[in-house]
Amino acid sequence: MRKNQVAVVGAAETTELGVIPNASQLQLHADAALNAIADAGLKLSDIDGFATAVETPQQVCHYLGIKPTWVDGTSVGGCSFMLHVRHAAAAIEAGLCKTVLITHAESGKSMIGKQPRFTAPDSLNGQFEAPYGVYGPPSMFPIPVLRFMKTYGITHEQLAAVAVVQREWAAKNPRAMMKDPITVTDVLNSRMIAYPFRLLQCCLVTDGGGALILTSADRARDFPRKPVYIMGTGESVETPMVSQMETFNSSRAFKTAGPLAFKEAGIKHGDVDHLMIYDAFAHLPLFGLGDLGFMPYEETGKFIADGNTRPGAKLPLNTNGGGLSYMHSGMYGMYALQESVRQMRGIAPAQVPNAKISVCHGVGGMFAASGTIVFTNER
Amino acid sequence: MAEPQRARPKPTPETQHFWDGTKAGELRLQRCDACAHVYFPPRPFCPSCASRKVSVFKASGKGFLYSYVINHRPAAPGFTPPYAIAVVELAEGPRMMSNIIDCAQTPEALELDMKLEVAFQELDDKITLPVFRQAKG
Which of A133, A181, A234, A270 is packed most tightly, with the most Cβ within 10 A? Predict the structure, then answer.
């Protein structure tokens, strides 16, 4: 795909984030969509392309009153929205539609109008993982961690530091759920969830949503907000069964999606001013830093523990506080994208001065899938 | 232990041989007749070269502890926390999720790379689960 041909011209989260007991999941989609449409200065009737995950495009389009000529229901977990951005950019370039709305919402905490997740007993997961006591992401996502730690000499303290540094970022974000400072000792004394991970190394469970609006870069100049260009994109999937990953020393999906996006954008790691790595659990930023090629895996834990990703340091990472401290409704990718867009617009609460290139890397379903978007505010 | 509520696998035509095997006290894998690739989970073709000529064979049941978590909360139905959810690398190459029995469910007892051997845990008259214990000797 050619770089910088498509731009984000509308971006918004739901009016509230956190615990939202007065709205269904579907209404949260609508709330985010209406906020993004207002942000872009558009009308609903301007939207001719639509993408969402978990909920179907027909469900959300009908509820909103959108009549699309292009839809994408790619649903590969929390990074689905990175894939939607990639697909939407291709569709706009191909002339299939002009203005794409991407929505995410999840009543992850209040569970209003949300279908429970179910593993069929005759699925492969149902036959070869569920009988061994996996029960929700905390029991599955961290399964590779001990191998990763042993292979690369990563310590428990370094994995605790991920949560500590992200809390520093969260403290600068008024909408972050958790803002009180924490220490490595606090993390290592928080209650055990799934060894080696404790409560403060696991993402929040919240309600919320977000929406993006994309159009061609040529049209983007006429919109009220500073355009944020899609500079590079990548995607891949590996396996729905965490036990069947090729290796626990890296993620094949990360290693495919990330370099694709860097190559398309034509950037090197030193060009990256701002970085988001979907952090459902504390090990994901380490996998991301290694798999995206920022540094050897052995250095990832020390890099974060030494403060290189904290406010004011050389590689600002997860500047909203991440899934660990900002919010995590279950599919966090949309919130990572929103923070990248805010940083590129120059309006983030914890703004990185003069940031011109933002890399936003997502994971879906226990390393099942990945999507990477490189944004820039310069065409 | 509330064993009856534990998630029960339901075999499909492609996986029936595996579950027939565990019921007979065998851990069965598949090998490609064309490229010799050994793979898991079961399917009637080779995921490496796409050949449909594949054979089922009895695996050694030997392996080592590749990684694990010790789950504290929330616990799956039928499990009493804390319990380890392990991934075992088999001597033949494939990995599978399992539980480690006859072993304290602690980081001290569960050493990565410890040698394991298969054991069989009957859930009901249809399903026997392959689980692992520390290998003797």
Answer: A234
